[in-house]
Fold:
Amino acid sequence: MLLHTIKEVREKRQEWKGLKVGLVPTMGALHAGHLSLIKKAKETCDKVIVSVFVNPIQFGPAEDFDKYPRTLEKDYELCTKEGVDIVFAPSPNEMYGAGQKLSNDTLTYVCPPFFYVNKLCGKTRTGHFDGVCTVVLKLFNIAQPDFAFFGQKDAQQAVIIKKMVKDLNVPVEVIQCPIVREESGLALSSRNKYLTEEGRKEALVLSKILNNIKSCYKKGITDIDALKETAYGFLNEKHDLEYLEILNKNTLEEQEKADDDSIALIACRVENVRLIDNMYLGG
Ligand code: PAF
Structure:
């Protein structure tokens, strides 16, 4: 069922009292990565809600909000095939109120802690995680799920959402699901659609760097700088590296040495498309 209003979702949720409800928050343009979250939600819960909302307040002024792919009809079809009970696709007016200025001068925002935000993607995407946490908390309040499913691909986002849930006592269990990759190693992302055929090949640099760091770690290299330096052999003028970090996977803290709790995270532009990827070094 495709619903566009908060009222309709609330009414359905009331009918589902006593059932286990799962929410998969998305911005649409669904791919196999999203479908893996939906499958996990279907396994875990009695009822599954997928939200499809390109959230304006998590995009910076120079980012791709206008051109972000919007494919609701196809998304709805895919969700129906997977047995999703509700696809919730609100308009920005429905989510934030008609005529509401979308700024923290006039709108209540959820601001995650500076320590978690002032690194990785948050360093260049000012306000991004405030926008993410605000919309996610709103979706939690609307759908009142027992479980919410997020992809490991947005590792910083997942850590920040878990922190918000803990700090604000939100009664939701956050389930993090593994990255889905193409056979080539490219992590699935809605933004891969912006790449040309050639760009898709160049984009493999992200997973190649991460795989190489992991195999160096497995061979016994634990010095973080030495691990990071191995990336330079893969980079050329077609790759604009934004960051490469090795941190604790649960806390995003810097570490003296890499260990089994480390995660390597990378952001790199290819054909001016900003791509991110990450890999756990342990396991
Ligand atoms: O990961 C995403 O697609 C978005 O950041 C989310 C969690 C749906 C919030 O808009």
User: Anything to note?
Assistant: Residues 25-27, 55, 58, 132, 135-136, 154, 157 surround pantoate (CB under 6 Å). The chain has a mean pLDDT of 97. Residues 197 and 203 are 10 Å apart (CA to CA).
